[in-house]
Design a protein that fits this description.
Length: 569
């Protein structure tokens, strides 16, 4: 009850002061949502392979999962489109994760009008933002295309035509951005993701697919003490480590804008930190004016942004539910029917003891509902029809725990224990069986959740949640409830309606480990033969020790007790 009260209070607080709801959110198949079609941006004569398209689907799915949205559907359409279907109305942050889906690139900065930038150093360095900006007067307007650039940071990349393009480039013009791409071996004119700074960038030096991991966290200094600011930690693979070491070695010796490198996603600069050290271990740390949310957003973009090709949004539409409320209602009815059948079976098999099963199922149902509502609020969980199926299946799994417990108690009663003793001894034996069974079920749910995609994960999630709740209920509600009932006269004396009737159990007991002699019945009685067959050795020994008191007169003999006088006549 304390757990239910706590979950209820938490949900109520979320409803009053945040975006929580008393009902779990529904998935795409039950509620409908938004469909976004992304089209690959290909140059003349270029094409995208099936493998690349499937890789893009996988990365976009990881992005969506990282944002907390569940039950999304991502698939391919034709030879160059990716279709993303999201339940409900997604927030802008989720849309940005999906629509910013171009190839991730690391390019050196040649020129920028940015006022301030972040900085990059090794993890643990006290890297700080640099207020240094490029001087427009230093722009290499006199550079000529006749001089071949020697490296990606060579200012000879900036021709008068390119600088003219930079001057006339409008960051507010959405048509010039989006999937703003350039060949990897050519410079790029673009803006940052806030449309407040313009850049001329050199050719690509490190590709996004060379990032193996990216996380956000608090920045620490060389002594390991937190600076209280947030940063982004990048981990490159072997190829990326070598490439990034070469880049930082060159950039560290340069000044001004040329000391910066730009992280480009979807044609926009999402970060352009300065280089404070030569990074040879492939583990740079980006620091600056980050918040916890902005650092996590950048880490997610770095981790899940390495698409094989760039994409642009072809269309965005609202779609209706593929199944709808009728299927949800049918699922709820199926669950109620299953619950009713379990109740009928429990009452038939265990009489009024079956009410404990029903009470436990009700408590488990309330806990499950509150947990799903909280998961919808805090984790972006969406309940699909597959998830409803997982809840229905869980009814039988949950009832199975109670059946194991009840049968253990009956076994202990047959061995001559009193009901309170049988409850405790049966619990010790039943708990091992229950934990082993639930452990296997939970392991199956976890494996299914990890390996599956789409709605199947919803089934695995609800199944796993109900398994955990089942263990909590049987330990904190069912067992204490039986401890209380064991001390009531109705159950302790083995009333016929209690489910603990001695005749039904095949054992002869009084409920307090006091055994009585079997009642002699007419020869051939089936009931007496069954009772004698089930009677344990301990019970027979106990019954044999009952002797008549000393003051009880002896029974009369059927033969004469007079002394014999001589021979019989």
């Amino acid at each position: 009850m304390v757990i239910i009260a706590g979950l209820t209070a938490t949900t109520a607080g979320g409803v009053l002061f945040s975006t929580a709801s008393w009902t779990p959110r529904l998935a795409l198949d039950l509620e409908g949502g938004t469909q976004i079609i992304l089209q690959a941006q290909l140059g003349e004569g270029e094409s995208i392979s099936t493998e690349q398209l499937n890789q893009a689907v996988s990365i976009i799915r990881q992005r969506i999962d990282a944002s907390g949205v569940s039950e999304a559907e991502i698939s391919t359409q034709g030879a160059q489109n990716v279709v993303v279907s999201l339940p409900g109305v997604p927030d802008q942050a989720t849309l940005d994760r999906i629509e910013s889906s171009a190839k991730l690139e690391f390019r050196p900065v040649l020129y920028t009008d940015a006022a301030s930038v972040a900085s990059v150093g090794e993890e643990g360095d006290a890297a700080s933002p640099s207020p240094e900006a490029s001087d427009p007067a230093a722009a290499p307007l006199e550079a000529t295309p006749s001089v071949s650039p020697t490296d990606a940071s060579d200012l000879n990349w900036i021709t008068p035509a390119l600088f003219d393009q930079f001057t006339n480039f409008d960051c507010a013009d959405s048509d010039t951005l989006g999937a703003n791409v350039a060949p990897v071996d050519q410079p790029l004119v673009t803006c940052d993701d806030t449309s407040t700074a313009k850049f001329i960038l050199g050719p690509v030096e490190v590709a996004g697919e060379n990032i193996s991991d990216a996380t956000n966290g608090l920045v620490t200094n060389a002594q390991g003490i937190s600076t209280g600011t947030w940063g982004v930690n990048i981990v490159f693979d072997g190829t990326g480590t070598d490439q990034f070491a070469a880049v930082t070695e060159r950039l560290f010796a340069l000044e001004g804008a040329q000391n910066q490198f730009a992280i480009v996603l979807d044609g926009r600069v999402i970060s352009a930190p300065t280089t404070n050290a030569v990074i040879t271990d492939g583990r740079p740390q980006i620091s600056g004016s980050f918040t916890q949310d902005s650092s996590k957003a950048l880490a997610d973009q770095l981790k899940f942004g390495a698409l094989p090709v760039g994409f642009e949004v072809l269309s965005r539409d609202t779609i209706s539910a593929t199944l709808g409320s009728n299927q949800l209602a049918s699922g709820v009815i199926a669950g109620l029917v299953g619950l009713g059948l379990v109740l009928v079976y429990s009452l038939f098999q265990y009489r009024l003891l079956g009410l404990v099963t029903m009470a436990s199922l009700v408590v488990a149902g309330v806990l499950t509902y509150l947990v799903l509502a909280l998961m919808s609020w805090r984790q972006g969980f969406r309940l699909s029809l597959a998830g409803v199926a997982g809840l229905i299946v869980a009814i039988g799994f949950t009832a199975d725990s109670f059946i194991v417990y009840f049968e253990r108690i009956r076994d202990e009663l047959r061995d001559g224990r009193s009901l309170p003793g049988a409850v405790e001894a049966g619990w010790k034996r039943a708990l091992r069986t229950i934990l082993a069974s639930k452990g296997i079920s939970l392991l199956s749910a976890v494996v299914l959740f990890v390996l599956a995609i789409g709605n199947v994960r919803g089934f695995a999630l609800t199944l796993g949640v109900t398994v955990i709740i089942d263990i909590i209920v049987v330990m904190l509600f069912t067992h204490p409830m039986l401890q209380l009932l064991a001390n009531t006269r109705f159950f302790a004396n083995g009333h016929k309606l209690s489910g603990l009737d001695p005749q039904a159990l095949g054992a002869i007991y009084r409920g307090r480990a006091q055994f009585r002699e079997p009642v002699r019945t007419a020869k051939g009685s089936g009931a007496s033969r069954e009772a004698a067959r089930r009677q344990t050795i301990a019970e027979r020994k106990a019954a044999g020790t009952i002797t008549a008191p000393a003051d009880t007169p002896p029974e009369k003999s059927v033969t004469s007790s007079a002394p014999s006088k001589g021979k019989d006549s």
